[in-house]
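Exercise 7.
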Amino acid sequence: MKQLDDFYLNQEEPVKGIFLALKEIILKQDENITNTLKYGMPFFCYKRKMFCYLWIHKKLKKPYIGIVEGKHFDDPFLIQEKRSRMKIMMFNVNEDLPLEEIEIVIQKAVNLYKLGIIKV
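Solution. The predicted structure, written as C-alpha cells, is:
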C-alpha cells in the first residue's frame, strides 16, 4: 500500500488533487473495486480483474482515466487514439471533474464484468 500511497502523494498539483478525487469516485462505485499499483500506475480492479487506471497523457500532459475494455463504449468523451482495446477519458486541470460522466463510464465498465461480458 505504501507504494500506491506514494504514487498519489508524489504527484504535483493540480494532478495530485485530480487523481485523489478520481480514486475516491471510482472506489465508491462498487464494494468489489480495489486499488493497486501495477506497471507503476494506479489500477482499479473489479474482483481482481483490471478494468481502469489513472495516468497522464504523454504529449498533452493531461490526467486521464484509462478504461481497459473501452472498445465496448461509444461515448463521445472517450478517446481511442491508436489503442485497439482501451479508451481514455481525459481531464482539463482547469475545469471541474465531470462527475456524472465519470460515474456513468465506471458503472458501464464494471457492468461488463458483472454481466459476464468480460470474464472475471
